[in-house]
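Design request, tokens follow.
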């Protein structure tokens, strides 16, 4: 007997038949003698619709009321799944975040889980009752509903698995595992049997939306075994695990991309100490996250161009802040460009092997793709390129690193 957490994403609960399909899968685990807690997302498209309703009423909405609205999608699916389980003869009860409760900090719309009260559901699970828990939502210090950021049900599931000391957290989705890159873009992408926490964390933070970044952080911290698998097939999934559990390490394990990028260039900024601080200080104060940065060395004239990236959502705010401070910063011109994408290659093998970046630059140049900004860390290389080359670049890199499926 094992204790398992099963999480089903939006497409997996997208209509009534799919919810019945989920109930069948849960029932099979219960009949195999396991204790089961299920975490579900809203039906696909529902959260987008709710977010859009808020935007239509108030573009700069109050985050508490936004959470009150967007958390409701999950209330529908927990109730429907509990009903479907009961119809299938399985003892089940639904739980909203506040009912357990799942406590979070007060950062409405992007809250972090702090604690999960599990005594009641553990007792009921031991009596054979399935707990159907709403993903994405929690209870803030002000006793109001919070949400965990888009894709947050993954984090709810991993946090619940950690709190329940579950043997495994199965994330059921519309692909049958973690691939070398988004299988929707590269048909030759290969499914990985295993991937390290670290690589998954990099991939998720660099744009692979198969798991929310925080869910991977949480799994790594609490050593939760996470498996990504399909809710529509029985194919074995991908296990996220420690590096020493992987015998054959690949040099590069994957390629991720993010379209949520925008580039800002400040033309002719003075090249003297303190300038970077005076530019990035006000951006930090305005809660704008800066990611990639390049600055050229000035030649004689004492002025240089400074280029950096922010998320598309932050672009307007960043431009406003920098325009307001133009006098003090003393640059000549601000050029903003949101027609960009960040493409990254990831692999723990890079720590011990040279040449990974070079392969990337060559493959892109062979396709005539210009690299605008580069950034690297121990296990990844990222480049910023024009958005229209997204597919071309990812496919070329996938081939260049020998990752194409036969
Ligand atoms: P869910 O609704 O189940 O949470 P998501 O849409 O959030 O599902 O995540 C699954 C999607 O992630 C897939 O449909 C796929 O297009 C995308 N994806 C991006 N990168 C990868 C990758 N490396 N491996 C698998 N899927 C990926
Ligand atoms: N329903 C939420 C969203 O669409 C949470 C999730 O699906 O993980 O972002
Ligand atoms: Mg998701």
């Amino acid at each position: 007997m094992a204790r398992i957490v099963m999480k089903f994403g939006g497409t997996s609960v997208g209509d009534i038949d799919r919810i019945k399909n989920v109930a069948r899968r849960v029932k099979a685990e219960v009949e195999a003698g396991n204790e089961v807690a299920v975490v579900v997302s809203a039906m696909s498209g529902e959260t987008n619709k709710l977010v859009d309703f808020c935007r239509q009423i108030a573009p700069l909405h109050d985050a508490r009321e936004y959470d009150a609205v967007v958390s409701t999608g999950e209330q529908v699916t927990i109730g429907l799944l509990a009903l479907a389980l009961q119809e299938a003869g399985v003892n089940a009860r639904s739980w909203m975040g506040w009912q357990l409760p799942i406590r979070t900090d007060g950062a409405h719309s992007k809250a972090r889980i702090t604690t999960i009260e599990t005594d009641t559901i553990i007792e009921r699970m031991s009596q054979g009752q399935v707990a159907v828990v709403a993903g994405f939502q929690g209870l803030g210090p002000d006793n109001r509903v919070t949400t965990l950021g888009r894709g947050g049900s993954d984090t709810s599931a991993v946090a619940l698995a950690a709190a329940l000391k579950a043997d495994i957290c199965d994330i059921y989705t519309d692909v049958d595992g973690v691939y070398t890159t988004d299988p929707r873009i590269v048909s030759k992408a290969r499914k990985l049997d295993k991937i390290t926490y670290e690589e998954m964390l990099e991939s998720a933070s660099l744009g692979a939306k198969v798991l929310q970044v925080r869910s991977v952080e949480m799994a790594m911290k609490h050593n939760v075994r996470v498996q990504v698998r399909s809710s529509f097939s029985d194919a074995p999934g991908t296990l996220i695990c420690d590096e020493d559990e992987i015998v054959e390490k690949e040099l590069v394990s994957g390629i991720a991309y993010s379209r949520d990028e925008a580039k800002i260039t400040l033309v002719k900024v003075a090249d003297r100490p303190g300038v970077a601080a005076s530019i990035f200080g006000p951006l930090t104060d305005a809660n704008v996250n800066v990611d990639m940065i390049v600055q050229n060395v000035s030649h004689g004239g004492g002025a240089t161009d400074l280029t950096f990236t922010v998320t598309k959502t932050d672009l307007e705010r960043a431009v406003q802040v920098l325009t307001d401070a133009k006098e003090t910063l003393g640059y000549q011109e601000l050029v903003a460009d949101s027609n960009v994408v960040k493409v990254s290659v990831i692999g723990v093998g890079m720590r011990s092997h040279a040449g990974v970046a070079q392969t990337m630059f060559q493959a892109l140049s062979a396709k005539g793709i210009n690299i605008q900004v580069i950034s690297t860390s121990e296990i990844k290389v990222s480049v910023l390129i024009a958005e229209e080359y997204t597919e071309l670049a990812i496919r070329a890199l996938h081939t260049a690193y020998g990752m194409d499926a036969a």
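Comment from the thread starter after seeing the answer: thanks! The chain is about 35% helix and 25% strand.
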